[in-house]
């Protein structure tokens, strides 16, 4: 297992170096002068230009600049925003809990519905229910989620007035962040109604962000279950007279979950991309909206830093999924 | 598939018609795939014939008909079937012209990603060694970014617009083709028919692209349909974020972005462009499922 881990890590390190090189080159690939782009000053005298260039270290050879950048990154320095002048890592830490909370809720939504739907469809293979569910899953998989979000707003916020349109919590409530998770913080705050408000703000964005993962998980669970249900050990378990619940729930599902777990892990990247759209629609103050806003403000150091941090997160999640996969499926280790 | 490979290497293939009918047999078994195909053909016709069947020009602003609801609603007018937007443009006409953009985006992006991915993937799989390692690490790097984020940043570098959005999306979709091609080539390259061609004196290029590649096409075609729908979705998403096609282009995502502020007042400006995206993507994905069943028995789901 340890060797398996080392093998994965050996692949991860060059990939991370490559990703950091892309993030590093990003500002230098932009049309225009990197000194102006990084300092945010548009008009400057040649002396001032040379001064800033020297201060930012842009007059050194690029390999030195890159190693310096990498050194900073490894110490948590991802650059400084041109617009707010605060550090990128600070902004990220402030906004990330919002995205994490939304993603966790969306993933719970996707898993809690997706796996039972997939199992049910597999058991009723070929039936009307199976075809309907898989048809709906394909619609979900094909969904332009930015439009789906707008539709849900029209229906639930506009017509029915059940849920709020945007934000994480009603402006009526204010309390200092403790964990950064609005559900937990609002519950800790003892302000009546705060938790309910935070919860109602989470419903629509979670559904929107969870829709595609839900569809993928349902389809994957179904096909994994179908494969496992045809195996000899399932037939043996049935022949032994075990209850259908034990056969399906314990013998089949456990093994069918192996590919599903990989699928769930791969959905993290899908979710971070989906967060860009979901957070924009619902004005959710997380890293997806942060990236879009930074692109519009031309806050290049933030784009650069955010790109690297997000790619880093995805790589770590993929590593974790690989390790988990190796742990539950011993065949893969060798 | 394994037992037909030997026959496939013959230049004139007598079994082509039979294989085509076999393909159609499996494809038409999947009812969803046939529905998808029919819808897709209608969409292509709508896009091609848009100048003939649209009642209005896509950019024509009728100042006396701003935010009119669809024709069947109380205040709707028959001249504007699906209503008008905030500056009085006919939504139906814009949607038909939008089909041109979406299908064009899908075709161009898929071709770019497919051709680029095949060339790089065949090289990686055929030569192996350090070339393979280098290429696969590069693809890992691209795959480490969420596709939409990378496309968004690339467009920020290249500048907003449809062309740059298409280049960015093609680059992001390419690694999937590289991986598939490489895996297929590695599985095929030591087969007897390849060895036979090599012994007969075929050069590397011929072996790579004439001998091996045609036998690796099935998974690539399936992936191409997936990329086609992904490209349409991502281009619409970029348009929605203001980074793709720019107004007044009647691109569906861009139309949605313009409609956002009216969502609580005029449901039709938001509903129809998104519905058009969904129907298109769904039709292509349905066809993709059918193609997978018909072309690649190994990938068959159920």
Verbal overview:
The complex is a heterodimer of chains A (334) and B (302). With 334 residues, chain A is mostly helical. Chain A is built from 13 helices and no strands. By secondary structure, chain B is mostly helical. Chain B is 69% helix and 0% strand. In chain B, helix 7 packs across helix 8 (162-188). Chain B starts with a helix and ends in a 7-residue tail after the last helix. Residues 1-11 of chain B have low confidence and may be disordered. Chains A and B meet through helix 1, helix 6, helix 7, helix 9 and helix 11 of A and helix 6, helix 7, helix 11 and helix 13 of B.
Write the layout of secondary structure elements.
The complex is a heterodimer of chains A (334) and B (302).
Chain A: H1 2-29, H2 34-39, H3 46-55, H4 62-74, H5 88-123, H6 128-141, H7 145-159, H8 182-188, H9 194-229, H10 232-239, H11 244-281, H12 287-297, H13 300-328
Helix pairs in contact in A: 1-13, 5-6, 5-9, 5-11, 6-9, 7-9, 7-11, 8-9, 9-11, 10-11, 11-12, 11-13, 12-13
Chain B: H1 5-8, H2 16-29, H3 31-48, H4 50-53, H5 91-127, H6 129-143, H7 147-158, H8 162-188, H9 192-199, H10 204-212, H11 217-240, H12 252-259, H13 267-295
Helix pairs in contact in B: 2-13, 3-5, 3-13, 5-6, 5-8, 5-11, 5-13, 6-8, 7-8, 8-11, 9-10, 11-12, 11-13, 12-13
């Amino acid at each position: 297992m340890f060797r398996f881990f080392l093998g994965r890590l050996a692949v991860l390190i060059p990939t991370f170096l490559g990703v950091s090189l892309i993030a590093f080159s990003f500002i230098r690939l932009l049309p225009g002068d990197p000194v102006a782009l990084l300092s945010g000053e548009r008009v400057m005298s040649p002396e001032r230009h040379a001064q800033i260039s020297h201060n930012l270290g842009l007059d050194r050879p690029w390999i030195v600049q890159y190693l310096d950048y990498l050194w900073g990154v490894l110490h948590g320095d991802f650059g400084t925003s041109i617009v707010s002048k605060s550090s990128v890592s600070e902004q990220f830490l402030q906004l990330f809990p919002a995205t994490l909370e939304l993603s966790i809720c969306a993933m719970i939504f996707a898993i809690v519905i997706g796996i039972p739907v997939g199992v049910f469809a597999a058991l009723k293979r070929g039936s009307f229910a199976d075809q309907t569910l898989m048809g709906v899953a394909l619609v979900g998989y094909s969904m332009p989620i930015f439009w789906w979000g707008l539709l849900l707003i029209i229906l639930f916020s506009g017509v029915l007035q059940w849920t709020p349109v945007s934000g994480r919590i009603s402006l009526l409530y204010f309390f200092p962040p403790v964990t950064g998770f609005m559900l937990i913080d609002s519950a800790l705050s003892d302000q009546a109604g705060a938790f309910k408000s935070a919860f109602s703000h989470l419903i629509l964005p979670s559904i929107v962000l969870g829709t595609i993962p839900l569809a993928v998980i349902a389809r994957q669970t179904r096909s994994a279950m179908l494969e496992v249900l045809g195996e000899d050990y399932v037939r043996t378990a049935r022949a032994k007279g075990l209850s259908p619940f034990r056969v399906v729930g314990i013998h089949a599902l456990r093994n069918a979950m192996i590919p599903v777990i990989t699928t769930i892990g791969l959905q993290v990247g899908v979710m971070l991309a989906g967060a860009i759209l979901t957070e924009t629609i619902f004005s959710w103050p997380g890293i997806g909206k942060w990236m879009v806003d930074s692109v519009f403000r031309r806050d290049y150091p933030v784009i650069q830093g955010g790109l690297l941090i997000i790619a880093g997160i995805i790589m770590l999640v993929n590593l974790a999924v690989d390790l988990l996969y190796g742990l539950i499926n011993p065949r893969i280790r060798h | 598939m394994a037992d037909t490979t030997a026959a496939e290497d013959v230049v004139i293939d007598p079994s082509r018609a039979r294989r085509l009918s076999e393909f159609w047999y499996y494809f038409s078994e999947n009812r969803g795939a046939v529905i998808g195909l029919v819808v897709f053909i209608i969409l292509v016709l709508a896009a091609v014939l848009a100048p003939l069947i649209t009642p209005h020009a896509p950019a024509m602003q009728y100042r006396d008909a701003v935010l009119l609801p669809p024709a069947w609603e109380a205040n709707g007018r028959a001249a504007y079937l699906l209503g008008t937007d905030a500056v009085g443009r006919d939504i139906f006409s814009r949607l038909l012209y939008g089909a041109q953009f979406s299908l064009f985006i899908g075709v161009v992006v898929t071709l770019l990603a497919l051709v680029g991915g095949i060339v790089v993937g065949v090289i990686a799989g055929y030569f192996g060694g350090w070339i393979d390692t280098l290429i696969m690490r590069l693809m890992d790097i691209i795959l480490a970014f969420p596709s939409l984020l990378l496309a968004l940043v690339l467009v920020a570098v290249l500048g907003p617009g449809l062309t740059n959005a298409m280049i960015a999306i093609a680059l992001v979709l390419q690694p999937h083709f590289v991986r598939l091609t490489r895996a297929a080539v590695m599985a095929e390259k030591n087969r007897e028919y390849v060895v036979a061609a090599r012994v007969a004196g075929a050069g590397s290029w011929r072996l790579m692209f004439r001998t091996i590649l045609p036998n690796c096409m099935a998974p690539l075609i399936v992936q191409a349909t997936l990329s086609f729908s992904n490209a349409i979705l991502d281009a619409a998403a970029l348009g929605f974020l203001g980074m793709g096609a720019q107004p007044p282009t009647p691109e569906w995502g861009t139309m949605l972005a313009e409609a956002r502020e009216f969502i609580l007042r005029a449901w039709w400006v938001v509903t129809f462009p998104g519905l058009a995206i969904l129907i298109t993507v769904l039709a292509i994905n349905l066809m993709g499922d059918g193609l997978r069943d018909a072309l690649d028995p190994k990938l068959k789901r159920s």
